[in-house]
């Protein structure tokens, strides 16, 4: 029943004999109580400072990957990018002219009618002009990146858990980036249970087990096995199983995990 696959890659329903709807749990399975939680919970912020212009989502809303979650006022970002871009063409022409001048001086030098100092000054002027051109090109690219980072977009199909900002708020991430929007996966949940070493048995990451919520069974894959201990007490394990989000399945609900027995 074990498939050696990544827990991210597995989306297949497990063996029908174990996971088919309405079929009884095999005698060798051990049932443990667990609770559903959010999968891939992520706190999002912007790496650039600005003023919040729009927040088109609300807590509890489901959004698709790429959906806009928040946008800062783009005016300062657009203007800084235009200022840098406007200098590029002039500096390109200056660099081209400095390169041609260096070639002319070199030609005179090769004909022994130019001095070492003239050639050196021409080379320096060329390098300075090219360096300034490249600096402004890099600055324009940085300004374009800052403009893009003024928008928060969902990295995957998600459920919005909280919105902690509003239009008009000033965002300044220089010290500690604030959490502006918090999301989690919309199509998956984590079923989490505390088990001891004997209950855990030979389970490994990626193994398939069944998760039951009031008779509604889903095939899940083991996503994490975390060792927990309280001081000198016995070691217990937090077992996290990634399951598809069925109809009516919500974080916080109680579930039963069917673990392989001896």
UniProtKB/TrEMBL annotation:
<protein>
    <submittedName>
        <fullName>HlyD family efflux transporter periplasmic adaptor subunit</fullName>
    </submittedName>
</protein>
<dbReference type="GO" id="GO:0015562">
    <property type="term" value="F:efflux transmembrane transporter activity"/>
</dbReference>
<dbReference type="GO" id="GO:1990281">
    <property type="term" value="C:efflux pump complex"/>
</dbReference>
């Amino acid at each position: 029943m074990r498939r050696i696959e990544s827990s991210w890659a597995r989306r297949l329903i497990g063996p029908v004999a174990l996971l088919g709807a309405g079929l009884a749990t095999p005698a060798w399975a051990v049932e443990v109580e667990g609770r559903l939680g959010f999968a891939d919970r992520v706190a999002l912020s912007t790496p650039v400072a600005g003023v919040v212009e729009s927040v088109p989502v609300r807590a509890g809303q489901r959004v698709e990957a790429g959906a806009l979650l928040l946008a800062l006022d783009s005016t300062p970002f657009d203007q800084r990018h235009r200022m840098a871009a406007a200098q590029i063409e002039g500096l390109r022409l200056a660099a081209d002219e400095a390169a041609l001048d260096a070639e002319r001086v070199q030609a005179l030098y090769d004909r022994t009618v130019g001095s070492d100092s003239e050639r050196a000054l021409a080379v320096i002027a060329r390098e300075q002009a090219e360096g300034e051109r490249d600096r402004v090109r890099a600055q324009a690219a940085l300004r374009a990146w800052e403009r893009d980072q003024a928008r928060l977009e969902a990295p995957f199909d998600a459920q919005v858990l909280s919105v902690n900002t509003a239009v008009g708020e000033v965002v300044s991430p220089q010290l500690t980036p604030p959490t502006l929007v918090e999301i989690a996966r919309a199509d998956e949940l984590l079923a989490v249970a505390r088990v001891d070493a004997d209950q855990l048995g030979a389970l490994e990451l990626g193994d398939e087990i069944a998760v039951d919520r009031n008779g509604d069974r889903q095939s899940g894959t083991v996503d994490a096995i975390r060792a927990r201990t309280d001081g000198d007490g016995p070691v217990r394990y937090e077992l996290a199983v990634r399951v598809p989000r069925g109809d009516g399945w919500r974080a916080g609900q109680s579930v039963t995990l069917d673990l392989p027995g001896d």
